[in-house]
């Protein structure tokens, strides 16, 4: 997690950082609805990178620590949205993580609260069973 | 509480990122060339919507195969904080001894139910009115 969500990351972020793909930046720039932003970012390699690097509780920690710091440039905004959208992959049965997601204060982000509601609505639990017919 | 939908397909999956369910090769009929036959895999997917104040329940998946006794399998419907819950039951190696209808039914404790069924017929002589019969007639 440290390498991905380092508090000093802001100063070390370069154009090649995997959370700042050109498509993620473009999506945040041109999105005119929260659903567009969610659908596009979910497919972006930036979100896939986050999911491959961190587990949902770590993503919440990372997002929380970034929300606690003031936004100073647009790249930080892109990262916040990437982290938030990555949380849509949280297991619907993981109640502890969902409790923490619900508690996040996303009022700094224009579509933060709407995205949180959309992600929560998609978190439908599925009971999966497999049997051999007797 | 009610069953929103119930469907049978060859396989089903839940997308990791979007948590959306996808069904592949939905069954509307099954035409084995001979009897007895074996249906390799059926994925039964159902969604349940709860009303305010209702919680997790245990339902029963009833599986009716022609020529075999009804098989009941308990399924847990877990909502956590969601209004909707899904259950996905994959049944493998279903022996089909004769023509008829295979029915998968989800029954909830309050009596609500949802079912999906499909016809099983001999593929060598498909019954009239089916796509298989029309295709056979065209090719004859």
Describe the model.
The complex is a heterodimer of chains A (134) and B (140). Chain A starts with 8 loop residues before the first helix and ends with a strand. By secondary structure, chain A is mainly alpha-helical. In chain A, helix 5 runs antiparallel to helix 6 (74-86). Chain A contains eight helices and one strand; from the N terminus they run ααααααααβ. Helix content of chain B is 6%, strand content 56%. Chain B has one helix at residues 131-139; strands spanning 2-14, 21-26, 29-30, 37-49, 57-64, 71-77, 84-96, 100-107, 113-120. Chain B has a five-stranded mixed sheet with strand order 3-9-8-5-6, with no helix packed on it. A four-stranded antiparallel sheet of chain B has the order 2-1-4-7, with no helix packed on it. The radius of gyration of chain B is 17 Å and the shape is elongated. The model of chain B has no long low-confidence stretch (mean pLDDT 91). Classes of the chains: A mainly alpha (134), B mainly beta (140). Chain A binds chain B through residues 42-43, 47-48, 51, 88-89, 92-93, 95, 98, 120, 122-134, and chain B through 14, 16-21, 47, 63, 65, 71, 73, 75-82, 84-95. Strand 1 (126-132) of chain A pairs parallel with strand 7 of chain B, so a sheet runs across the interface.
């Amino acid at each position: 997690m440290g390498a991905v969500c380092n508090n000093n990351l802001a100063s070390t972020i370069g154009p090649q950082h995997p959370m700042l793909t050109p498509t993620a930046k473009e999506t945040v720039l041109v999105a005119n609805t929260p659903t567009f932003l969610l659908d596009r970012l979910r497919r972006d390699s930036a979100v896939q990178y986050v999911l491959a690097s961190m587990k949902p509780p770590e993503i919440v920690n990372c997002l929380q620590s970034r929300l606690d710091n003031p936004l100073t440039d647009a790249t930080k905004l892109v990262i916040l949205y990437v982290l938030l959208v990555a949380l849509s992959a949280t297991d619907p049965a993981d109640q502890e993580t969902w409790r923490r997601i619900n508690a996040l204060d996303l009022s700094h982000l224009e579509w933060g609260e709407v995205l949180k509601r959309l992600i929560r609505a998609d978190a439908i639990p599925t009971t999966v069973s497999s049997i051999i017919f007797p | 509480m009610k069953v929103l939908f119930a469907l049978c397909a060859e396989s089903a999956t839940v997308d990791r990122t979007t948590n959306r369910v996808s069904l592949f090769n939905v069954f509307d009929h099954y035409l084995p060339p001979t009897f007895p036959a074996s249906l390799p895999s059926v994925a039964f997917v159902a969604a349940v919507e709860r009303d305010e104040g209702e919680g997790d329940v245990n339902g029963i998946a009833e599986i009716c195969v022609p020529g075999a006794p009804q098989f009941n399998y308990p399924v847990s419907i877990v909502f956590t904080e969601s209004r909707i819950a899904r259950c996905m039951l994959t049944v493998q190696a279903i022996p089909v001894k004769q023509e008829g209808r295979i029915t998968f039914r989800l029954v909830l404790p309050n009596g609500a139910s949802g079912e999906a069924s499909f016809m099983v017929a001999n593929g060598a002589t498909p019954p009239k009115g089916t796509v298989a019969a029309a295709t056979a007639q065209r090719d004859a």
